[in-house]
Amino acid sequence: MFLKAYLLLFLLMRVAASDNNNGYGFTFNGNFKLGVGETDVTPDSLVNVCNTTAFYSSPLGFKNPSTGVDVVNINRSTPAGYFENENGEFKKLTIASGEPIQAWVDYDSVRKKLNVSLAPINTNQPNLPLLSIDIDISSIVSDQMYVGFYSTSQSSNILGWSFQLSGKAQLDLSNLDYFSKGKHTKKKKIIVISTVSAVAVVSVLLIFLVIFLWVKRKAKFSEILEDWEVQYRAHRFSYKDLFKATKGFRENELLGRGGFGQVYGGVLPNSNTQVAVKRISQKSKQGMREFIAEIATIGSLRHPNLVRLLGYCRRKGELFLVYDFMPNASLDKFLFCKSEKDTLNWSQRFKIIGDVASGLTYLHEEWVAVVVHRDIKASNVLLDGKLNGKLGDFGLARCYKHHGNGPQTTNIAGTLGYIAPELARYGKPTTGTDVFAFGAFCLEVACGRKPVERRAEPGEVILVDWVLECSKKGEILKAADPKLKNKFEAGEMELVLKLGLLCSHPVAEFRPKMSQVLKYLKGYDSLPEDSDTLWTQEHWVEINDSNMSLSHHLTSQLQDSVASLTITELFTSKGR
To answer: Is 530 among the catalytic positions?
Structure first.
């Protein structure tokens, strides 16, 4: 029983009490809150607990529902407190503290003794009672009685009580709402604290994870923009944009693969522009600064027969070149396809040859500077949706001023079969070396064969040698691509084959300029009548020797520089 302020205890109980002292008795165990209080006996023999500083023992009265009997009249008091079981020391209790207090009222019918004890909560009943009164209540105990509690203060609160005959009253505090609520509250607090702590820990971990992923992602797309690159910023793409455009450079976005890099198709995220991205490993001995400067310069080229170099990106030893996307891929896909339905007819081939000649003329003679392409071949000629030919892949290109000394490089670049003899000897590219490669390209398109066929018959391994032999025999049309099935205009075929031989002459001085080549193709001028005789036996041996020595020398030279990068394999049907 827990009470504050005025407490009136009225006990009506059913007990087995007799005059023979058979040991029956009752105990009352209550937990109550009290203010400062005392007990006394009212005129009608009821126990009264009042708000004072002490717990009083006053005449204890019991009242039958029908008859009231005064039993004793004793007046004595004692301070509120309890005696410790360990050492018998008396401990005071401040009843006004509002803390829960335990109270025991025990009556021993054998000894005829009524004991009252107090103790703090969670303390066992003291062995030594606070008050002890000798009294015989057997004369007033009936067969049926009640126990009740009364308080004149609304702040009183009885939290629990128990009654026991022939034994000690027991009260399990854990079953009381007051304490279980406290436990539940404490448990809830623990749960809340644990939950909040867990959420806080998870939140911190998530924050660190987000930071880690952000840093990792930033590092993934990190780039270095040096001071000298600021002037070329308009030509530079971010690696992040190229990564998104190619879907992370996925394999299914791969358009082509060569010995020095791969080409991927993609769509730029901001402009939705389709592009081709060439990914190259940077191993050049040439300064990157000079290389980027040339890329930026070449990016200014504008011609209908040139694939635009849109810009570049460099990151962690890799170089990325971004070009216009060509839906019909590269020319070699059509020249060397196995299906006849995909083979280009002669009219289409002749036009493409003229397109490439027009683009080269612009590079060599019509732009503000001279641009040497250095890698002219069928796989670098791309076709748009209408099969217009466009010369692409400017990764090896070099430019210099008109009437200048030419590109300042001695690195051999290109593909075996397209490299002029003087380039193999001295390593210096010129417009003449481009013309030589164009001659090999003309023969490649007309004959449907690569310049070097290692598996061909002994006399047909080198394409230019074989075409020259056919020309000397007066059977030059025999070299035409058999997939055409003789469905071509003979004059145009002969023109292209002889022009290919003329442009592939081992002596640079005998090769025509590209503007003159364009005139031949358009019919403005005719080929020299003695073009066949320009090929002497000494010249023939010279180019054969050059091709033989070049095959051994080229590989090591190509691996030394970015300038040697080239794509020699076919592209897939997706284009480039």
So the answer is: no
